[in-house]
Amino acid sequence: MHRNRLLYSFVLIPFFLAGCTKTTLSPQEILTVNPGSALLTPGQQVNFVATGFTGSLQNPVWMVNGSVGGSASTGTIAGGIYTAPTTAPSAPVQITVKDTILGVTSRPAPVSFFSSSSFQSGAVSTTNNPLVASYAVTVPKGSTIQVNFGTTTAYGLSTWIQPVTSGGGLTSVLIAGMRSAATYHLQGTITLPTGQVITDTDKSFTTGSLATGVLPDISIPITKGPNTAPGVEMIDVVNLGPVPNTLQALVTDLDGNVIWYYPLVGQTPFPIKQLPNGNMLMNLLGSSSSTREIDLAGNTVFEVTIDQVNQSLQNLGAGFSLGSFHHDVQKLENGHYLILANYTKQVTDTPGFGSVIGDVIVDWDPKAKAVAWYWNTFDHLALTHDPMGPSDWTHGNAIVYSPDDGNIMFSMRNQNWVIKINYRDGGGDGSVLWRFGPGGDFKLPAGQDPIEWNYAQHFPSFISPNTAGNFQLMLFNNGNNRLLNAANQVCGTAGAGACYSSVPVYNVSESAKTADLASELILSPAYSVCCGNAEFLSNGNLEYDVAADANFSNLSYIEESLPGATPNLVWQMNVSGSRVYRGFRMPSLYPGVTWTQDAIAAANAPAVAKKTAP
Fold first, then answer.
1. What is the pTM of this model?
2. Domains along the chain?
3. How many Cβ atoms are within 10 Å of 453's Cβ, its own excluded?
4. The pLDDT of residue 75 is above 60
């Protein structure tokens, strides 16, 4: 195919010079139409586009079954817009486009016609993930598909409603949220563009078993109840011991049953998060670092390696090479990925500094396959601000995009700062707009400074509708080396109080550079020396991950608390022997869909055995 395309480019030159009107090439290998096929109901339209041609069409002529413009019986086409006839033909029709000047004609794109009376039941099949099924069905353009599933024909849970492929035809929906080694009933519901609803026949699917020894040590000391928020739990595990096969990227229900996972050997997810398109996004640590986006079945949708990013940085003359991706990654609405990375720089011009680890934020454009913008801590921060020492200088752990102004909020644990960077959707100069934290640009009211500043913080987030000007900022305040009073006593030192973690919410004014506490959940005596996150749930409760409590050995716990100044727990999950870098409550495995705890229980109800006649 590439050879023919190359041949054509050479033939085209003398063709134009000679003023010919016909080429002797095989045009089917050059010109195509998209979509490549369509399934329509009578009267529907679909827009076909000519693609795959190395030049520009000069006089495109669209045809149906070889007839220019089509006909009333086969459907008409003008400018690539095909309109199906009001009465469906008995056989598919063929759409082609040709250029009468260049003499090239596309390969045909078949258009079939759907009748609800001849609907063919969908099929369920396995995927790469033993807990995920695929439901495939052939339906016309403009239809939507949703799949209900559960251990009985009462079902209980549903996927999201998915539109079919652009021109209609065979469409698949991934079904996830099932427990291992169990048989589930599945039923597709198809809504046609006419509004007619087709309920497919019941089908069954048996999930695979989990291998022995792969599960983290999960327990539920406080079980769910009427005040527990809906949803399921995403767990991002960092193993502490020699357990390379233990699952590290997984989702459980609130009883601790695994309902989704992504197996990794020799790599660690750091982090993993759900995207609005239903896929999962992660940074991977290991022998070679990468950023990867996968679907629920575990199929890779996108991946970029650190070697590819380093090559692009070299092409830009950046003057450094990244060592690893880590801690956070964001996918923007324009399709770009903001990736957090670091590298070690040998510092020779600042006393007390030698090998220093600093952070870099990379804006990767997947279409151009290149770095579109980058920001380097060494270019924008003073080395002499090093509250946790000169070696692991910044230790960035979160990137948060601000849609109101197109800038980036960036958390640096070892700086005790959350800063805002002039990103401007890739057009900013990278200047630091402000620094939030002790010694930064904001002031706290008397009595809040210095004890209420953020110390070794993780996971800042905007919890107000606006993200610039006046907004609310929440974070998980680990509390390392927290200053307790005006005398600057450091927690945990002789004569001072103990260190503790908390979840504060600040009212922030960017223009006045002021902040004050709107609320704070004090977790004392819990003191998470690293990691962690916090989020408000749909019912107003607060969930947080205490990843590394100094009071316990090798234990992480995720808690859901009623609002208030101190924890009032309505649910708790413990993970022993592994560190939960982040733990999230997700409404379900499908964005925009909420699974209540009652629905999850109903979907996993034991099947009732049928009575047999005596």
1. 0.91
2. 2-109 (no CATH), 116-206 (2.60.40.10)
3. 23
4. yes
